[in-house]
Amino acid sequence: MADKTIMLACSAGMSTSLLVSKMQNAAKEKGKDYKIFATAASGIQDEIDKEHPDVLMLGPQVQYMEDSVKKITDEAGIPLAVINMQDYGMMNGEHVLETAQELMGDN
Known about the structure:
CATH superfamily: Response regulator
Mean pLDDT: 94
CATH class: Alpha Beta
Distance between the termini: 19 Å
Number of strands: 4
């Protein structure tokens, strides 16, 4: 079982799949055992209930949802951040992973 779970959410859960792969590779290189997955923004509540992630990161394209999602994550005690647009555009899995680690306190 993974030490930590990182959940990414975007419009349909598709565009973040490449980023998930790059983050998994970066985690493996650092010797970290993380479960990293992407979901559609519409499924955030269901995935939080099912997976109990340690952190939730929103894709820049759903940044407008941050306030409403923050209510859900605050209630669940899960840190929330919007993925840096430049990191997202460059598919910089290593940097996005570092941000997630900082949020989880697992540097």
